[in-house]
Design goal:
By secondary structure, the chain is of the alpha/beta class. The protein contains 23 helices and 20 strands. It has 3 domains: 167 residues, Thiamin diphosphate (ThDP)-binding fold, Pyr/PP domains (Rossmann fold); 166 residues, 3-Layer(aba) Sandwich (Rossmann fold); 170 residues, Thiamin diphosphate (ThDP)-binding fold, Pyr/PP domains (Rossmann fold, 3-Layer(aba) Sandwich), CATH 3.40.50.
């Protein structure tokens, strides 16, 4: 008998023996293809960590805060499309994870979060480090489980991964009591799922697809909005081919950036509160709007009553709850964006209708006229303009196609506006929850997932201090993460609102920072400070060429503003282009 066959039989014989619940958990993860997880140990999960110590098929990355573990798992999921996995202990370990879970829920990314829990017999007795995680996470996850019997664990894990990655993706929480990890039974992973109440729709209704195409054929001023659901469905190629075939311009939501090539003539770029002037005007004046994988949240619609007032709206989304929730829809199509767009393209290519290219060209001429109106720098200063830093980052790194993460604030909007993303899963940012501190640990997860890629976190001096401790994680594992800090000495986006709407009352928005060079060196990383424009390019190149984590502190003009800007409550065609211009309508 061959040696490999003997080992296989030995392994099977070993698995036929009763296993600790902690080991069964790891075997379940292995069955789901998990080989990397993020976490932080604690009392009730020590049996799991003891099994990880003996495990050779899962690599664990030790973060420095549980919130960072969840963001890292989400960064991993965003960069790969796979389910990210994180583990925390009970009580404060689990409650520290809530922000990360809520972030993944609102943006729709698949993660499975395993939280430790006190033993079943202690639940409800105010035991040490007990918290009602099922209750706390009920409103901010796709589904959650409290494991009360070890025999249920394999089924629960299989269901959790299935629910996390199907339909509209999202986080699933498994609350795992300590006594379940210490109990024993023989391991058997279920082959089939039985979830009769969970059946996401994938195939779009054929008649609705035909109805949608007819509207698009006859449209004089059509626009497509490509949202985050296009990323989740892997439908970037399909939406690009359909737009090109039908000669329709495409605007992206913040979450949809990269789903349509930014350098394509049909690209309008980002729309919304800080979106491109021409994108907002095109959407506001279109006669047919095809929206794919977007929730129509307030940041892209502005005043709902005045959003697309003359347009027929076609909405494709796998989540039926998102359709007509905010914007009334004329043609709803529930299903998987990739499948529906493919069906639309096949139907369109039958050429049963003639596309009026001349009519579309008139629409493009109008859009090109709007393109001539652009936002300008708002402050004359001897200091570095933050937009210049972002532009230089793009110019220097575009050919290596790095993964770009951001924190939340002005730097996030400048990155979305100025960095031209041509591929999905290249831009990782927090949209729905707007989580400061997201970008750096998300970059950790992306760097673990894509070890051959340069990963850049563009941060503000406020946001980077939210999870700055993860620099130690980067150093420990020599992760190729470059942090470019746009350091303006303020919580910039909040200060911007205070300047415009609160009579320049800068209440608690001036923020101090450590010496980032010394801090980076203290952690064992490379630190660079840049205060002159001529030093921007050499610093970026040095950071990219360095093998390992780098902090670059760009000291920039503190009072620069993000424009274009649609003030809250205004329609999106009422766009401010500078501090002094009158509203453009």
């Amino acid at each position: 008998m061959a040696e490999s066959e003997c080992m296989t039989k030995a392994q099977e014989a070993e698995k036929s023996e009763p296993m600790l619940g902690a080991r069964i958990l790891l075997e379940c993860l292995k069955k789901e293809g998990v080989d990397e997880i993020f976490g932080y140990p604690g009392g009730v999960v020590l049996h799991i960590y003891d099994e990880l110590y003996k495990c050779d098929f899962i690599k664990h990355y030790l973060v420095r805060h549980e919130q960072a573990a969840i963001h890292a798992a989400e960064g991993y999921a965003r960069a790969t499309g796979k389910v990210g996995v994180a583990i925390t202990t009970s009580g404060p370990g689990a409650t520290n994870a809530i922000t990360g879970i809520a972030n993944a829920y609102l943006d729709g990314y698949p993660i499975v979060v395993i939280t430790g829990q006190v033993s079943v017999d202690l639940i409800g007795n105010d035991a040490f480090q007990e918290a009602d995680i099922v209750g706390i996470t009920r409103s901010c996850c796709k589904h959650n489980y409290l494991v009360k019997d070890l025999k249920d664990l394999p089924r629960i894990v299989k269901e959790a991964f299935h629910i996390a990655k199907t339909g509209k993706p999202g986080p699933v929480v498994i609350d795992l009591p300590k006594n379940i990890t210490t109990a024993k039974m023989k391991f058997k992973y279920p082959e089939k799922l039985d979830l009769p109440g969970y059946n996401p729709t994938y195939e779009g209704h054929p008649r609705q697809i035909l109805n949608a195409l007819k509207l698009l054929y006859d449209a004089k001023k059509p626009v497509i909005i490509s949202g985050g659901g296009v990323v989740a469905a892997g439908a970037s190629q399909e939406i690009t081919e359909l737009a090109r075939y039908l000669h329709i311009p495409v605007a992206n939501t913040l979450m949809g950036i990269g789903t349509f090539p930014a350098d394509d003539r049909l690209s309008l770029g980002m729309l919304g509160m800080h979106g491109n002037y021409w994108a907002n005007l095109a959407v506001s004046n279109c006669d047919v709007l095809l929206a794919v994988g977007t929730r129509f949240n307030d940041r892209i619609t502005g005043c709902l009553k005045k959003f697309c007032p003359d347009a027929k709206v076609i909405h494709i989304d796998i989540d039926p709850c998102s359709i007509s929730k905010n914007v009334p829809v004329d043609i709803p199509i529930v299903g998987d964006a990739k499948k529906i767009l493919s069906a639309m393209l096949i139907q369109a290519q039958k050429k049963e209708h003639q596309i009026n290219v001349e009519l579309k060209d008139k629409w493009f001429a109008q859009i090109d006229e709007w393109r001539s109106k652009r936002a300008m720098l708002t402050v004359k200063s001897d200091k570095i303009a933050p937009q210049t830093v972002i532009q230089k980052i793009y110019d220097i790194t575009k050919d290596i196609e790095p993964i770009i993460c951001t924190e939340v604030g002005q730097h996030q909007m400048w990155t979305a506006q100025l960095y031209k993303f041509n591929k999905p899963r290249q831009f990782l940012t927090s949209g729905g929850l707007g989580t400061m501190g997201f970008g750096f640990p998300a970059a950790v997860g992306a760097a673990v997932a894509k070890k051959d890629k340069v990963v850049i976190d563009i941060a503000g001096d406020g946001s980077i201090q939210m999870n700055i401790q993860e620099l130690m994680t980067c150093v420990d594992y020599n992760l190729n993460v470059k942090v470019f800090i746009i350091n303006n000495g303020y919580l910039g986006m909040v200060r911007q609102w205070q300047e415009k709407m609160y009579n320049k009352h800068y209440s608690q928005t001036h923020i101090s920072s450590p010496d980032y060079v010394k801090l980076a060196e203290a952690y064992g990383a490379l630190g660079i400070r840049v205060e002159r424009e001529e030093d921007i390019e050499p610093a970026i190149r040095k950071a990219i060429e360095h093998n390992g984590p780098v902090f670059v502190d760009f000291v920039v003009e503190p009072f620069e503003m993000v424009y274009p800007w649609v003030l809250a409550g205004d329609p999106i065609d009422k766009v401010l282009l500078s501090n002094t211009n009158t509203d453009e309508e």
